[in-house]
Structure formats: structure tokens, C-alpha cells
Amino acid sequence: MTSTPFLSRRRLALAAAAALLLCAHAQANTGPSAWPAKPIKVIVNFPPGGAADQIARAISQPLQEALKQPVVIENRAGANGNVGGEAVARAPADGYTLLMSSGGMVSVNPHLYTRMSFDPAKDLVPVAAAARVLVFLVTKPSLPPENVQAFIAYARANPGKLSYGSPGNGSSPHLAGEMFKSQAGLFALHVPYRGAAPALQDLLAGQVDYAFDPGIALQQVRAGKLRLLAVGSPRRSPLFPDVPTLDEAGLRGFDADTVFGFYAPAGTPPEVVAQLNAQINRALALPAVKERIASLGGEAVPGSPADFQQRAAADSQRFGALIRERKIAAD
């Protein structure tokens, strides 16, 4: 009779220990070591059809094959990328919500908006760069100039008569346009759109005269529907080796390239960020992905999160100075 309470207490202790072990095992299987255990959502902070959207979709297929989980693309456009950026910044930091964005949201928007509902530098962590995207100076073919020097002379002779479209105030094509006006000493009307695809549609329709295009208009250039005059990059595009850069055309140091890449909410486990970075870099090495990015006139740029962060910091200084000089403001 005296051993019964002792045995009961022993059984209770063993049961409690077993429960603790089961709990620890469950936590281990739902922590970073078990990631990913469910679909991953990639929020693209620009409309469908633009460079960010196309790059995200090119990488999503090999990424989901490597991670053995669906990778779902969701477009949340608005406020030059801030709408999608905020959605990711406020998401759980568990590796299941990522952002695909141009570098402008981190390096440009803090200079552009007097108030932002989140701080990209603090509320997001860089995961991996994806592509360096060039901008191409394209015009409607009905304009008389057939080369960049003639175009600059024509614009100078017709101040305020030409208009150019961009994906929105503060977007990299808009900044390229302002850089062009500043260095070329000309004036043209800026027409902002909600994304690169709508801007391209109006350029094709003749509603605007020219644009600095992030690569999505190149198919229309090949079809003869648009005229390509120059590249706003430090070096020529391999796709159009005979087309000069604006630097070669006399606008010394002209560089409007931007780097697109992936971000995660701040606090995402470092081991998850490292795994994502490795898998994205592997995807960028695939010929199909490299070719898709090249079709936009860009190039794959694999690297570490630190590399991506350093590029964003350098762009912030460069574009911040331009925004102050040109007194560019958000919508």
C-alpha cells in the first residue's frame, strides 16, 4: 500500500517529461530547421508585366522546385513600391513572405517621401540581389531624330514640347529622365504612370514622346514600333552592341542602372535568409533564368545579402543627391 503513491508520482513525472520532449520535438520541427513547411509568398511591389514582376516569375519556378514548396507571386503596387514594401515589413518574420522590388524602394523612397509608414532600412533585411537592370532611351518612331545627339538638339530646340513617361515619381526610369534633362540641359514634361507597363502602352500609342525603359520595350524596338537611341548605363548592352551609351554621347558618367532583388521582414532567422540566398543564387545561374533577365536588357547579379546592402547604400547617396538637386517630390 505504501508504494502506490510513490509509483503514481513516478508515473506522473515520467508523463510530464515525455510531454516536454514531445513539445520540444514539435517546436524543433516548426522552427527554422524545418523551414519551409508551407507555401512561400513573394509580394511584387509593382504591377504585372514590369521588370520586377517578370524577374520574380522567372526565379519562382526553380525556387519552388529547390524548396519543394509552392512559391506564389502577388502584385501589390502603389506609392512607388511602398504599398508592397509595407505589407512585407509588417508580415511575420518567418521566411514565408518575401518582397521582390527594385532597389529604389530602399535607396530612393526615403529621400522622396517626407513620411513613410515603415523604415526600409530597419524593417526589411536584404536576402539576395537578382538582376542589374539597365534603362534604355526609347522614342516613338514618328519623332524626327534618329540618334541621341540629334534628339538632344531637337529637345533643346523645342523646350517643353516633348513629354516622357515613367512608372511613377521617384522610379528609376523617372530619375533617369531627370538625370538626362539635367546633364543634357533640356526641358521636357514628365508623365508618371502606375507602373512601367502602362507607361509603355501610352508610348506605343503616341501619348508620350519618349521614355527611359527598364527593358520591357525591347521587343517593341525589335518589331520597329519604337526607336532605341541610347543606353543609360556605364557600358553598352550585349543585346544592342551598336547602340551607344549616354556617356559615349557626351553625358559623362551617366549611370541610371538599378538592382532588383529580394527582401524579408526584419527578424527573419539568419539561417532562413542564408538558405534563401543560396537557392536564389542557384536559380540565377540557370541558363533559362539568365536568358529571361537578359531579354529585359539586364544581367543576373548573384551575391551575398551584404553585397546587396552595400549597393543599396551607394545608390542611396547617388540618387539622394539627384532628388535634392531636381527637387523631386512624391505624388
Structure description:
- With 331 residues, the protein is an alpha/beta fold.
- 45% of the residues lie in helices and 17% in strands.
- A 6-stranded mixed sheet has the order 2-1-3-10-4-11, sandwiched between helices. Strands 7-6-8-5-9 form a 5-stranded mixed sheet.
- Strand 6, helix 8 and strand 7 form a beta-alpha-beta unit.
- Helix 2 packs across helix 11, helix 2 runs antiparallel to helix 12 and helix 8 packs across helix 13.
- It is globular and about 65 Å long.
- The relative contact order is 0.18.
Helix and strand layout, with pairings?
Blueprint: H1 3-30, E1 40-44, H2 51-67, E2 71-75, H3 82-89, E3 97-102, H4 104-107, H5 109-112, H6 120-123, E4 124-133, E5 136-139, H7 148-157, E6 163-166, H8 172-184, E7 189-192, H9 196-204, E8 210-213, H10 218-222, E9 227-231, E10 258-265, H11 270-284, H12 287-295, E11 299-300, H13 305-326
Parallel strand pairs: 1-2, 1-3, 6-7, 6-8
Antiparallel strand pairs: 3-10, 4-10, 4-11, 5-8, 5-9
Strand segment count: 11
Sheet bearing the most strands, described?
6 strands, mixed
Rg for CA atoms = 25 Å
Q: Describe the global form.
A: globular
Helical content (DSSP H or I, runs of 4+): 40-55%
Helix run count: 13
Query: Can you give the mean pLDDT?
Result: 89
Write down the secondary-structure element order.
HEHEHEHHHEEHEHEHEHEEHHEH
Low-pLDDT segments, ≥5 res: 17-31
- Determine the strand fraction and express it as a percent band: 15-25%
What oligomeric assembly is this protein in? Answer: single chain
Structural class: alpha/beta
Q: Distance between termini?
A: 84 Å
Order of strands across the widest beta sheet? 2-1-3-10-4-11
